[in-house]
Specification:
- This protein has helices at 23-70, 74-122, 138-146, 153-157, 160-182, 187-218; strands at residues 12-13, 16-17.
- It is an all-alpha fold.
- The chain has one domain (22-150, 159-215).
- 21% of the residues are buried.
Length: 226
């Protein structure tokens, strides 16, 4: 039997002696795996957001060229009603994927917090040196995210899902206004239709995103709360 180092009591996790075994290597390997997965998740978030904004920019340039050529006539309206639904479809797919990616990132943070808790169980004297949290409850997750217990409004306003959702709502309003013009609605009516459609789209997307996050976190029970 391997003997413990002198002056240090045996370290146990859930009643299992882990000092001197490969458990630390397992924890470190899992931590690096979660960290790599989180890096790929963030790369996907930036990539999808950038791709969507690139598609939107290309569509705006194409619409401006067609508008100059047709003078905002029937040809422009037809082109807009063909290209804007495609842009909106890409935007909706991007929005929902970003919400899913944020949920996945939250789970990865929870996993790393649990591993950090295991580190502290193995070496309690290292706790003052950890900046991120070693608790897997909501305050612990937020501390790892932003190094504080609460996330401000500016953090949520600068999030990729919110930005893409707002852009999707604007595209929805523009498409609705173009359709209104195609069916003969006046200037005031088109403006009202566009604004209402944009507001409704923003509310629907916000509600769906909130329900997704709430559904995932509703039954969650932390293993290592404060």
């Amino acid at each position: 039997m391997r003997q413990q180092p002198p002056g240090r009591p045996p370290v146990s996790m859930d009643g299992v002696d882990v000092s001197g075994g490969p458990h630390v290597q397992f924890l470190v390997t899992e931590h690096w795996s979660l960290l790599a997965t989180r890096s790929m998740t963030w790369s996907e978030i930036f990539s999808r957001t950038g791709t969507y904004l690139t598609v939107l920019s290309a569509a705006v340039i194409a619409l401006s060229l067609v508008a100059n050529a047709t003078g905002f006539g029937s040809g422009f309206r037809m082109f807009a009603m063909l290209i804007l639904p495609v842009v909106l479809l890409i935007g909706l797919g991007t929005f929902f994927r970003l919400v899913e990616a944020d949920v996945e990132d939250a789970w990865l943070v929870i996993g790393m917090n649990r591993l950090r808790h295991a580190y502290i169980e193995l070496a309690p004297e290292l706790e003052p040196y950890f900046v991120a949290s070693h608790h897997d409850d909501k305050p612990g997750m937020l501390q790892t995210y932003a190094f504080r217990d609460r996330v401000g409004v500016t953090h949520w306003l600068s999030g990729s899902p919110l930005i893409v959702g707002v852009v999707d709502a604007v595209v929805t309003g523009v498409l609705a206004a173009v359709v209104g013009q195609a069916i003969g609605a006046g200037h005031t009516a088109r403006t009202v239709i566009g604004v209402v459609a944009a507001v409704v789209a923003a509310v629907v997307l916000g509600t769906l995103g909130y329900r997704k996050v709430h559904h995932v976190s509703r039954d969650y029970q932390p293993l290592f709360p404060r």
